[in-house]
Design brief:
The N and C termini lie far apart (49 Å). It is globular and about 45 Å long. The protein is built from 1 helix and 6 strands. Strand 2 and strand 3 form a beta hairpin. The protein is 9% helix and 54% strand. The protein is mostly beta strands. It has a 5-stranded mixed β-barrel.
Length: 107
C-alpha cells in the first residue's frame, strides 16, 4: 500500500509577532499566523496558524516580525477536543513547519 502525502507550501505575511513558549519537557515551540493572498481581484486572503519547533521556531522568533514575508514548508495537523463550556466537539487545522525561509531583507 502506498504511503499518504501530507505536505504544504505557503508564502505570505505574518499577521502578528511570533510567540515562543517552552513545553514541560523543555522543547521550544513558536506560534504565528500567516496571511496568504488569494489569486483574485477582490483582495481576499486565507489565514493559517503555524507552529515551528525548536531551532526553526527560535530563528523565526529572532528574525521575523508582523508584516514580514516568509515561505513556510510543512505538514498539516488536525487537533480535536471537546469544548469545556459548550460540550461541543471542536477542531482546528494548523501547519507544522519544518522549514521557514525569510523573504524580506533585514529590517
Amino acid at each position: 500500500m502506498a504511503r499518504g502525502i501530507n505536505q504544504v507550501i505557503l508564502m505570505g505575511r505574518l499577521t502578528r509577532d511570533p510567540e515562543t513558549r517552552t513545553t514541560p519537557s523543555g522543547k521550544t515551540v513558536t506560534s504565528f499566523s500567516l496571511a496568504v493572498d488569494r489569486q483574485t481581484q477582490d483582495d481576499q486572503a486565507d489565514f493559517f496558524d503555524v507552529t515551528a519547533w525548536e531551532k526553526t521556531g527560535e530563528l523565526v522568533a529572532q528574525y521575523v516580525t508582523k508584516g514580514r514575508r516568509v515561505l513556510v514548508q510543512g505538514r498539516l495537523r488536525q487537533d480535536s477536543w471537546d469544548d469545556k463550556d459548550t460540550g461541543k466537539k471542536r477542531s482546528k487545522v494548523e501547519v507544522v513547519a519544518f522549514d521557514v525561509t525569510f523573504l524580506d531583507g533585514p529590517s
